[in-house]
Amino acid sequence: MDNLSKKELNKINVINDAEKNVLAIISHSIAAAEEVFSILTEEDFTVMNYKVIFKALQEQFLAKVAINITTLSNYMLKNNMLNKIGGIEFLTDLFQSYTTDANLTEYLDIIIKNTTSRRLKAVLENIHREIETHQPIDEVVSKAEKEILDVKKERKGNLFKTSFDEVDKVLQKIELLENSGEMLTGSPSGFRDLDRMTSGFQKGDFIILAARPSMGKTALALNFAVKSAAQSKKAVAIFSVEMPVEQLIQRMIGSYSTVDSAKVRTGKGLQTRDWENITKAADFLKQTKLFIDDTPGLKVIELQSKLRKLCRENEVGLVVIDYLQLLSTGTHFGDSRQQEVSTISRQLKALARELEIPIICLSQLSRSVEKREDKRPIMSDLRDSGAIEQDADIIMFLFREDYYATHDPNNLDVPLETEKAQLILSKHRNGPTGSVELLFVKKHGSFADYGLQNSKI
Protein backbone atom coordinates (compact mmCIF):
# COMPACT_ATOMS: atom_id res chain seq x y z
CA MET A 1 0.00 0.00 0.00
CA ASP A 2 2.95 2.33 0.69
CA ASN A 3 3.85 2.36 -3.01
CA LEU A 4 0.36 3.37 -4.17
CA SER A 5 -0.20 6.89 -5.44
CA LYS A 6 -2.75 9.20 -3.87
CA LYS A 7 -5.00 8.74 -6.93
CA GLU A 8 -4.88 4.95 -6.60
CA LEU A 9 -5.64 5.14 -2.87
CA ASN A 10 -8.62 7.40 -3.53
CA LYS A 11 -9.92 4.93 -6.12
CA ILE A 12 -9.64 2.04 -3.64
CA ASN A 13 -11.45 4.07 -0.97
CA VAL A 14 -14.28 4.90 -3.39
CA ILE A 15 -14.70 1.21 -4.27
CA ASN A 16 -14.59 0.13 -0.62
CA ASP A 17 -17.18 2.75 0.31
CA ALA A 18 -19.45 1.60 -2.53
CA GLU A 19 -19.21 -2.01 -1.36
CA LYS A 20 -19.95 -1.04 2.24
CA ASN A 21 -22.91 1.16 1.26
CA VAL A 22 -24.47 -1.56 -0.91
CA LEU A 23 -24.30 -4.02 2.01
CA ALA A 24 -25.80 -1.45 4.38
CA ILE A 25 -28.64 -0.76 1.93
CA ILE A 26 -29.58 -4.41 1.34
CA SER A 27 -29.53 -5.07 5.07
CA HIS A 28 -32.30 -2.46 5.43
CA SER A 29 -34.35 -2.84 2.23
CA ILE A 30 -35.92 -6.00 0.79
CA ALA A 31 -36.60 -4.29 -2.57
CA ALA A 32 -32.95 -3.23 -2.83
CA ALA A 33 -31.81 -6.70 -1.82
CA GLU A 34 -33.80 -8.27 -4.67
CA GLU A 35 -32.14 -5.96 -7.19
CA VAL A 36 -28.60 -6.39 -5.82
CA PHE A 37 -28.75 -10.19 -5.56
CA SER A 38 -29.91 -10.40 -9.18
CA ILE A 39 -26.87 -8.41 -10.34
CA LEU A 40 -23.94 -8.99 -7.97
CA THR A 41 -22.14 -12.04 -6.63
CA GLU A 42 -19.69 -12.27 -3.75
CA GLU A 43 -16.85 -12.21 -6.33
CA ASP A 44 -17.77 -8.60 -7.14
CA PHE A 45 -16.52 -7.54 -3.68
CA THR A 46 -12.83 -6.81 -3.13
CA VAL A 47 -12.82 -6.55 0.69
CA MET A 48 -12.81 -10.04 2.24
CA ASN A 49 -15.06 -9.00 5.16
CA TYR A 50 -17.63 -7.67 2.68
CA LYS A 51 -17.51 -10.93 0.70
CA VAL A 52 -18.38 -12.88 3.85
CA ILE A 53 -21.19 -10.51 4.84
CA PHE A 54 -22.64 -10.50 1.32
CA LYS A 55 -22.74 -14.29 1.30
CA ALA A 56 -24.46 -14.38 4.71
CA LEU A 57 -27.01 -11.74 3.64
CA GLN A 58 -27.73 -13.65 0.43
CA GLU A 59 -28.25 -16.94 2.30
CA GLN A 60 -30.60 -15.24 4.76
CA PHE A 61 -32.49 -13.60 1.90
CA LEU A 62 -32.90 -16.89 0.03
CA ALA A 63 -34.11 -18.55 3.23
CA LYS A 64 -36.71 -15.74 3.52
CA VAL A 65 -35.47 -14.77 6.97
CA ALA A 66 -36.08 -11.17 8.08
CA ILE A 67 -32.72 -9.38 7.95
CA ASN A 68 -31.65 -7.31 10.96
CA ILE A 69 -28.49 -7.15 13.02
CA THR A 70 -29.74 -9.76 15.50
CA THR A 71 -30.75 -12.42 12.94
CA LEU A 72 -27.66 -11.79 10.83
CA SER A 73 -25.16 -11.89 13.71
CA ASN A 74 -26.75 -15.08 15.11
CA TYR A 75 -26.62 -16.70 11.65
CA MET A 76 -22.99 -15.70 11.11
CA LEU A 77 -22.01 -16.87 14.61
CA LYS A 78 -23.68 -20.25 14.05
CA ASN A 79 -21.92 -20.71 10.70
CA ASN A 80 -18.47 -19.60 11.90
CA MET A 81 -18.59 -16.41 9.85
CA LEU A 82 -18.60 -13.77 12.57
CA ASN A 83 -15.01 -14.40 13.64
CA LYS A 84 -13.90 -14.04 9.97
CA ILE A 85 -14.93 -10.37 9.95
CA GLY A 86 -13.52 -9.48 13.36
CA GLY A 87 -16.65 -9.82 15.47
CA ILE A 88 -19.95 -8.06 16.13
CA GLU A 89 -18.32 -4.61 16.18
CA PHE A 90 -17.63 -4.72 12.41
CA LEU A 91 -21.22 -5.78 11.71
CA THR A 92 -22.65 -3.09 13.99
CA ASP A 93 -20.61 -0.41 12.24
CA LEU A 94 -21.95 -1.59 8.88
CA PHE A 95 -25.60 -1.46 9.98
CA GLN A 96 -25.17 1.96 11.59
CA SER A 97 -23.58 3.40 8.42
CA TYR A 98 -26.91 3.20 6.54
CA THR A 99 -28.49 6.53 5.66
CA THR A 100 -30.47 6.12 2.42
CA ASP A 101 -30.70 3.83 -0.58
CA ALA A 102 -31.04 6.76 -3.01
CA ASN A 103 -27.54 6.24 -4.46
CA LEU A 104 -27.77 2.46 -4.91
CA THR A 105 -27.51 2.65 -8.72
CA GLU A 106 -24.35 4.74 -8.46
CA TYR A 107 -22.75 2.30 -5.99
CA LEU A 108 -23.63 -0.69 -8.19
CA ASP A 109 -22.11 1.04 -11.22
CA ILE A 110 -18.82 1.59 -9.32
CA ILE A 111 -18.67 -2.07 -8.25
CA ILE A 112 -19.55 -3.46 -11.68
CA LYS A 113 -16.99 -1.28 -13.46
CA ASN A 114 -14.32 -2.36 -10.98
CA THR A 115 -15.18 -6.02 -11.55
CA THR A 116 -15.01 -5.52 -15.34
CA SER A 117 -11.62 -3.84 -14.96
CA ARG A 118 -10.28 -6.66 -12.76
CA ARG A 119 -11.50 -9.37 -15.15
CA LEU A 120 -10.03 -7.57 -18.13
CA LYS A 121 -6.67 -7.32 -16.37
CA ALA A 122 -6.84 -11.06 -15.60
CA VAL A 123 -7.55 -11.83 -19.26
CA LEU A 124 -4.61 -9.70 -20.38
CA GLU A 125 -2.32 -11.37 -17.86
CA ASN A 126 -3.46 -14.77 -19.10
CA ILE A 127 -2.76 -13.72 -22.70
CA HIS A 128 0.72 -12.61 -21.70
CA ARG A 129 1.40 -15.97 -19.99
CA GLU A 130 0.26 -17.91 -23.04
CA ILE A 131 2.51 -15.84 -25.29
CA GLU A 132 5.43 -16.40 -22.94
CA THR A 133 4.83 -20.17 -22.99
CA HIS A 134 4.82 -20.10 -26.83
CA GLN A 135 1.22 -21.20 -27.36
CA PRO A 136 0.10 -21.13 -31.05
CA ILE A 137 -0.41 -17.43 -31.74
CA ASP A 138 -3.60 -17.86 -33.81
CA GLU A 139 -5.22 -19.75 -30.93
CA VAL A 140 -4.07 -17.11 -28.43
CA VAL A 141 -5.52 -14.27 -30.55
CA SER A 142 -8.87 -16.01 -31.08
CA LYS A 143 -9.18 -16.97 -27.43
CA ALA A 144 -8.24 -13.43 -26.38
CA GLU A 145 -10.91 -11.88 -28.61
CA LYS A 146 -13.61 -14.12 -27.18
CA GLU A 147 -12.55 -13.62 -23.55
CA ILE A 148 -12.40 -9.83 -23.93
CA LEU A 149 -15.87 -9.78 -25.47
CA ASP A 150 -17.14 -12.12 -22.73
CA VAL A 151 -15.95 -9.75 -20.01
CA LYS A 152 -18.44 -7.15 -21.21
CA LYS A 153 -21.24 -9.51 -22.27
CA GLU A 154 -21.26 -11.65 -19.13
CA ARG A 155 -23.03 -9.05 -16.98
CA LYS A 156 -25.67 -8.38 -19.67
CA GLY A 157 -26.30 -12.07 -20.09
CA ASN A 158 -27.36 -12.40 -16.46
CA LEU A 159 -30.25 -9.96 -16.83
CA PHE A 160 -33.79 -10.87 -17.80
CA LYS A 161 -35.46 -9.08 -20.69
CA THR A 162 -38.94 -7.97 -19.73
CA SER A 163 -41.99 -8.51 -21.89
CA PHE A 164 -42.86 -4.83 -21.32
CA ASP A 165 -39.71 -3.69 -23.15
CA GLU A 166 -39.45 -6.52 -25.70
CA VAL A 167 -43.09 -6.38 -26.84
CA ASP A 168 -42.71 -2.69 -27.62
CA LYS A 169 -39.57 -3.42 -29.66
CA VAL A 170 -41.38 -6.06 -31.71
CA LEU A 171 -44.34 -3.74 -32.31
CA GLN A 172 -41.97 -1.02 -33.50
CA LYS A 173 -40.33 -3.47 -35.89
CA ILE A 174 -43.71 -4.58 -37.28
CA GLU A 175 -44.70 -0.93 -37.79
CA LEU A 176 -41.44 -0.18 -39.61
CA LEU A 177 -41.95 -3.18 -41.89
CA GLU A 178 -45.52 -2.09 -42.63
CA ASN A 179 -44.47 1.44 -43.53
CA SER A 180 -41.48 0.33 -45.61
CA GLY A 181 -43.53 -2.04 -47.76
CA GLU A 182 -40.55 -4.43 -47.70
CA MET A 183 -41.34 -8.14 -47.49
CA LEU A 184 -37.85 -9.16 -46.42
CA THR A 185 -36.87 -8.99 -42.77
CA GLY A 186 -33.48 -10.65 -43.28
CA SER A 187 -30.69 -10.86 -45.86
CA PRO A 188 -31.97 -11.60 -49.37
CA SER A 189 -31.15 -14.88 -51.09
CA GLY A 190 -31.93 -13.34 -54.46
CA PHE A 191 -34.47 -16.04 -55.29
CA ARG A 192 -38.09 -14.94 -55.35
CA ASP A 193 -39.85 -18.02 -53.97
CA LEU A 194 -37.19 -18.78 -51.37
CA ASP A 195 -37.34 -15.22 -50.04
CA ARG A 196 -41.11 -15.50 -49.82
CA MET A 197 -40.80 -18.61 -47.65
CA THR A 198 -38.05 -17.33 -45.39
CA SER A 199 -38.52 -13.53 -45.56
CA GLY A 200 -34.76 -13.56 -46.13
CA PHE A 201 -32.03 -15.24 -44.12
CA GLN A 202 -32.54 -14.03 -40.55
CA LYS A 203 -29.99 -12.67 -38.06
CA GLY A 204 -28.57 -15.39 -35.83
CA ASP A 205 -29.77 -18.23 -38.08
CA PHE A 206 -27.54 -21.24 -38.70
CA ILE A 207 -28.50 -22.58 -42.12
CA ILE A 208 -27.45 -25.88 -43.68
CA LEU A 209 -27.38 -26.29 -47.47
CA ALA A 210 -26.76 -29.96 -48.19
CA ALA A 211 -26.52 -32.12 -51.32
CA ARG A 212 -24.63 -34.99 -52.85
CA PRO A 213 -21.40 -34.09 -54.74
CA SER A 214 -21.84 -32.37 -58.14
CA MET A 215 -25.43 -31.31 -57.41
CA GLY A 216 -24.37 -27.65 -57.56
CA LYS A 217 -24.45 -26.62 -53.90
CA THR A 218 -21.30 -24.47 -54.23
CA ALA A 219 -22.77 -22.77 -57.33
CA LEU A 220 -26.02 -22.08 -55.47
CA ALA A 221 -24.18 -20.80 -52.39
CA LEU A 222 -22.14 -18.42 -54.57
CA ASN A 223 -25.39 -17.23 -56.15
CA PHE A 224 -26.72 -16.54 -52.63
CA ALA A 225 -23.55 -14.63 -51.75
CA VAL A 226 -23.42 -12.44 -54.86
CA LYS A 227 -27.16 -11.73 -54.98
CA SER A 228 -27.24 -10.87 -51.27
CA ALA A 229 -24.23 -8.56 -51.53
CA ALA A 230 -25.71 -6.82 -54.60
CA GLN A 231 -29.20 -6.36 -53.19
CA SER A 232 -28.43 -5.55 -49.56
CA LYS A 233 -25.23 -3.54 -50.18
CA LYS A 234 -23.83 -5.25 -47.07
CA ALA A 235 -20.62 -7.23 -46.77
CA VAL A 236 -20.79 -10.96 -47.44
CA ALA A 237 -18.09 -13.33 -46.19
CA ILE A 238 -17.20 -16.55 -48.00
CA PHE A 239 -15.01 -19.16 -46.35
CA SER A 240 -13.93 -21.64 -49.01
CA VAL A 241 -12.01 -24.54 -47.51
CA GLU A 242 -12.33 -26.67 -50.63
CA MET A 243 -11.67 -24.27 -53.51
CA PRO A 244 -9.08 -21.47 -53.99
CA VAL A 245 -10.30 -17.91 -54.46
CA GLU A 246 -9.25 -17.80 -58.14
CA GLN A 247 -11.61 -20.66 -59.00
CA LEU A 248 -14.43 -19.05 -57.02
CA ILE A 249 -14.05 -15.77 -58.93
CA GLN A 250 -13.94 -17.67 -62.25
CA ARG A 251 -17.22 -19.36 -61.36
CA MET A 252 -18.84 -16.07 -60.34
CA ILE A 253 -17.74 -14.40 -63.58
CA GLY A 254 -19.03 -17.33 -65.63
CA SER A 255 -22.34 -17.27 -63.79
CA TYR A 256 -22.97 -13.55 -64.11
CA SER A 257 -21.56 -13.08 -67.63
CA THR A 258 -23.55 -16.07 -69.02
CA VAL A 259 -20.37 -17.08 -70.83
CA ASP A 260 -19.70 -20.81 -71.02
CA SER A 261 -17.83 -21.67 -67.81
CA ALA A 262 -15.41 -23.88 -69.77
CA LYS A 263 -14.37 -20.86 -71.86
CA VAL A 264 -13.89 -18.75 -68.75
CA ARG A 265 -11.85 -21.51 -67.13
CA THR A 266 -9.60 -22.20 -70.14
CA GLY A 267 -9.60 -18.83 -71.91
CA LYS A 268 -10.16 -20.62 -75.22
CA GLY A 269 -12.85 -19.85 -77.81
CA LEU A 270 -13.80 -16.45 -76.41
CA GLN A 271 -15.49 -14.04 -78.81
CA THR A 272 -15.72 -10.25 -78.65
CA ARG A 273 -19.21 -10.43 -77.13
CA ASP A 274 -17.92 -12.91 -74.53
CA TRP A 275 -15.22 -10.45 -73.48
CA GLU A 276 -17.77 -7.66 -73.21
CA ASN A 277 -19.92 -9.79 -70.91
CA ILE A 278 -16.92 -10.93 -68.86
CA THR A 279 -15.78 -7.31 -68.38
CA LYS A 280 -19.28 -6.31 -67.34
CA ALA A 281 -19.42 -9.17 -64.85
CA ALA A 282 -15.99 -8.27 -63.47
CA ASP A 283 -17.00 -4.63 -62.96
CA PHE A 284 -20.16 -5.76 -61.19
CA LEU A 285 -18.29 -8.10 -58.84
CA LYS A 286 -15.74 -5.40 -58.01
CA GLN A 287 -18.53 -3.23 -56.64
CA THR A 288 -19.94 -5.89 -54.34
CA LYS A 289 -18.53 -6.19 -50.84
CA LEU A 290 -17.43 -9.82 -51.03
CA PHE A 291 -14.76 -10.99 -48.60
CA ILE A 292 -13.25 -14.38 -49.41
CA ASP A 293 -11.03 -16.57 -47.24
CA ASP A 294 -9.64 -19.67 -48.92
CA THR A 295 -7.40 -20.96 -46.12
CA PRO A 296 -7.03 -24.73 -46.54
CA GLY A 297 -7.58 -26.83 -43.42
CA LEU A 298 -9.31 -23.90 -41.70
CA LYS A 299 -9.92 -24.33 -37.97
CA VAL A 300 -13.14 -23.11 -36.41
CA ILE A 301 -11.17 -21.00 -33.94
CA GLU A 302 -9.49 -19.19 -36.88
CA LEU A 303 -12.83 -18.71 -38.63
CA GLN A 304 -14.32 -17.21 -35.45
CA SER A 305 -11.43 -14.77 -35.09
CA LYS A 306 -11.55 -13.63 -38.73
CA LEU A 307 -15.31 -13.23 -38.73
CA ARG A 308 -15.39 -11.25 -35.47
CA LYS A 309 -12.81 -8.86 -36.93
CA LEU A 310 -14.75 -8.51 -40.19
CA CYS A 311 -17.97 -7.78 -38.27
CA ARG A 312 -16.23 -5.09 -36.22
CA GLU A 313 -15.10 -3.33 -39.37
CA ASN A 314 -18.12 -3.93 -41.68
CA GLU A 315 -21.86 -4.44 -41.61
CA VAL A 316 -22.00 -8.11 -42.55
CA GLY A 317 -25.24 -9.40 -44.05
CA LEU A 318 -24.40 -13.03 -44.77
CA VAL A 319 -21.71 -15.67 -44.27
CA VAL A 320 -21.17 -18.72 -46.49
CA ILE A 321 -18.95 -21.63 -45.43
CA ASP A 322 -17.95 -24.29 -47.98
CA TYR A 323 -18.09 -26.73 -46.33
CA LEU A 324 -18.77 -28.15 -42.85
CA GLN A 325 -16.95 -31.48 -43.10
CA LEU A 326 -13.69 -29.79 -44.18
CA LEU A 327 -13.50 -27.63 -41.05
CA SER A 328 -11.58 -28.83 -38.02
CA THR A 329 -11.45 -27.97 -34.34
CA GLY A 330 -7.72 -28.53 -33.99
CA THR A 331 -8.61 -30.74 -31.01
CA HIS A 332 -8.00 -34.47 -30.80
CA PHE A 333 -11.27 -36.43 -30.77
CA GLY A 334 -9.73 -39.84 -31.33
CA ASP A 335 -11.64 -41.70 -34.01
CA SER A 336 -14.87 -39.83 -33.38
CA ARG A 337 -15.30 -37.59 -36.41
CA GLN A 338 -18.99 -37.41 -35.53
CA GLN A 339 -18.16 -35.81 -32.18
CA GLU A 340 -15.88 -33.26 -33.86
CA VAL A 341 -18.52 -32.30 -36.45
CA SER A 342 -21.07 -31.96 -33.63
CA THR A 343 -18.72 -29.57 -31.84
CA ILE A 344 -18.17 -27.54 -35.03
CA SER A 345 -21.92 -27.35 -35.63
CA ARG A 346 -22.58 -26.05 -32.10
CA GLN A 347 -19.79 -23.49 -32.38
CA LEU A 348 -21.09 -22.15 -35.70
CA LYS A 349 -24.62 -21.85 -34.31
CA ALA A 350 -23.27 -19.98 -31.27
CA LEU A 351 -21.23 -17.71 -33.57
CA ALA A 352 -24.31 -16.83 -35.64
CA ARG A 353 -26.15 -15.88 -32.44
CA GLU A 354 -23.19 -13.96 -31.03
CA LEU A 355 -22.59 -11.86 -34.15
CA GLU A 356 -26.29 -11.66 -35.10
CA ILE A 357 -25.71 -12.71 -38.70
CA PRO A 358 -27.05 -15.60 -40.81
CA ILE A 359 -24.45 -18.30 -41.48
CA ILE A 360 -25.01 -20.68 -44.40
CA CYS A 361 -22.89 -23.79 -44.09
CA LEU A 362 -22.65 -26.33 -46.89
CA SER A 363 -22.72 -29.98 -45.94
CA GLN A 364 -22.21 -33.34 -47.59
CA LEU A 365 -24.82 -36.09 -47.55
CA SER A 366 -24.12 -39.75 -46.87
CA ARG A 367 -24.08 -42.31 -49.68
CA SER A 368 -27.30 -43.84 -48.38
CA VAL A 369 -29.15 -41.47 -50.74
CA GLU A 370 -27.79 -43.33 -53.76
CA LYS A 371 -29.12 -46.67 -52.55
CA ARG A 372 -32.75 -45.57 -52.44
CA GLU A 373 -35.14 -45.58 -55.34
CA ASP A 374 -36.40 -42.13 -54.31
CA LYS A 375 -33.19 -40.12 -54.12
CA ARG A 376 -34.69 -36.99 -52.61
CA PRO A 377 -32.60 -36.24 -49.51
CA ILE A 378 -34.00 -36.41 -45.99
CA MET A 379 -32.51 -35.13 -42.73
CA SER A 380 -31.17 -38.52 -41.68
CA ASP A 381 -28.89 -38.34 -44.75
CA LEU A 382 -26.83 -35.53 -43.22
CA ARG A 383 -23.31 -36.82 -43.01
CA ASP A 384 -21.30 -37.33 -39.82
CA SER A 385 -23.61 -35.85 -37.24
CA GLY A 386 -27.20 -35.90 -36.05
CA ALA A 387 -26.33 -32.74 -34.07
CA ILE A 388 -26.51 -30.74 -37.30
CA GLU A 389 -30.23 -31.48 -37.47
CA GLN A 390 -30.66 -30.14 -33.93
CA ASP A 391 -28.48 -27.04 -34.27
CA ALA A 392 -29.69 -25.75 -37.64
CA ASP A 393 -32.52 -23.24 -37.91
CA ILE A 394 -32.99 -24.04 -41.59
CA ILE A 395 -31.99 -27.22 -43.43
CA MET A 396 -32.14 -27.02 -47.23
CA PHE A 397 -31.45 -29.89 -49.63
CA LEU A 398 -30.56 -29.27 -53.27
CA PHE A 399 -31.95 -31.96 -55.55
CA ARG A 400 -31.82 -32.34 -59.35
CA GLU A 401 -33.73 -35.36 -60.61
CA ASP A 402 -32.26 -34.94 -64.11
CA TYR A 403 -28.77 -35.34 -62.62
CA TYR A 404 -29.44 -39.03 -62.03
CA ALA A 405 -30.95 -39.46 -65.50
CA THR A 406 -27.93 -37.90 -67.26
CA HIS A 407 -25.54 -40.02 -65.17
CA ASP A 408 -27.44 -43.23 -65.95
CA PRO A 409 -25.31 -45.32 -68.39
CA ASN A 410 -28.51 -46.72 -69.92
CA ASN A 411 -29.79 -43.25 -70.81
CA LEU A 412 -28.59 -42.31 -74.31
CA ASP A 413 -30.41 -38.96 -74.49
CA VAL A 414 -28.33 -35.83 -75.02
CA PRO A 415 -27.94 -33.98 -71.68
CA LEU A 416 -30.08 -30.87 -71.38
CA GLU A 417 -28.54 -27.40 -71.15
CA THR A 418 -30.87 -26.54 -68.30
CA GLU A 419 -32.39 -28.63 -65.57
CA LYS A 420 -35.17 -28.13 -63.10
CA ALA A 421 -33.85 -28.15 -59.54
CA GLN A 422 -35.60 -28.41 -56.21
CA LEU A 423 -34.52 -26.66 -53.07
CA ILE A 424 -36.21 -28.66 -50.33
CA LEU A 425 -36.68 -26.90 -46.97
CA SER A 426 -36.94 -29.87 -44.61
CA LYS A 427 -36.53 -27.80 -41.47
CA HIS A 428 -37.50 -24.18 -40.91
CA ARG A 429 -37.55 -23.29 -37.23
CA ASN A 430 -39.42 -20.02 -37.71
CA GLY A 431 -41.46 -20.61 -40.84
CA PRO A 432 -42.95 -23.06 -43.33
CA THR A 433 -41.25 -26.05 -44.89
CA GLY A 434 -41.68 -27.09 -48.52
CA SER A 435 -39.93 -26.95 -51.88
CA VAL A 436 -38.74 -24.10 -54.08
CA GLU A 437 -38.35 -24.72 -57.81
CA LEU A 438 -35.20 -23.37 -59.44
CA LEU A 439 -33.62 -23.61 -62.87
CA PHE A 440 -30.03 -24.83 -63.12
CA VAL A 441 -28.10 -23.52 -66.15
CA LYS A 442 -25.25 -26.01 -66.42
CA LYS A 443 -23.22 -24.11 -69.01
CA HIS A 444 -22.91 -21.09 -66.74
CA GLY A 445 -23.00 -22.93 -63.41
CA SER A 446 -25.83 -20.69 -62.21
CA PHE A 447 -29.32 -20.92 -60.78
CA ALA A 448 -32.37 -18.80 -61.51
CA ASP A 449 -35.99 -18.66 -60.42
CA TYR A 450 -37.86 -21.34 -62.33
CA GLY A 451 -39.29 -19.95 -65.57
CA LEU A 452 -36.81 -17.04 -65.65
CA GLN A 453 -34.07 -18.72 -67.68
CA ASN A 454 -32.54 -15.50 -68.85
CA SER A 455 -32.27 -14.00 -65.36
CA LYS A 456 -28.77 -13.10 -64.27
CA ILE A 457 -27.41 -13.53 -60.81
Q: Top keywords for this entry?
A:
about 450 residues, alpha/beta, DNAb Helicase, Chain A, Rossmann fold, nine-stranded mixed β-sheet, 18 helices, about 50% helix, elongated
Q: What global shape is seen?
A: elongated
Q: Strand portion, in percent?
A: 5-15%
Topology as H/E string?
HHHHHHHHHEHEHHHEHEHEHHEHEEE
Overall number of structural domains? 2
The main sheet orders its strands as 3-2-4-5-1-6-7-8-9
Structural class: alpha/beta
Number of strands: 9
Q: Helix share of residues?
A: 40-55%
How is the main sheet built?
9 strands, mixed
Radius of gyration: 30 Å
Unreliable spans: 453-457
The CATH architecture category of the largest domain equals 3-Layer(aba) Sandwich
CATH class descriptor name of the largest domain: Alpha Beta
User: If helices are DSSP runs of H or I spanning 4 or more residues, what is the number of helices?
Assistant: 18
Using the coordinates shown, work out and report the CATH topology of the largest domain: Rossmann fold
Overall pLDDT confidence: 81
**CATH superfamily heading of the largest domain:** P-loop containing nucleotide triphosphate hydrolases
Query: Kindly, what is the distance between the CA atoms of the first and last residues, rounded to a whole number of angstroms?
Result: 68 Å
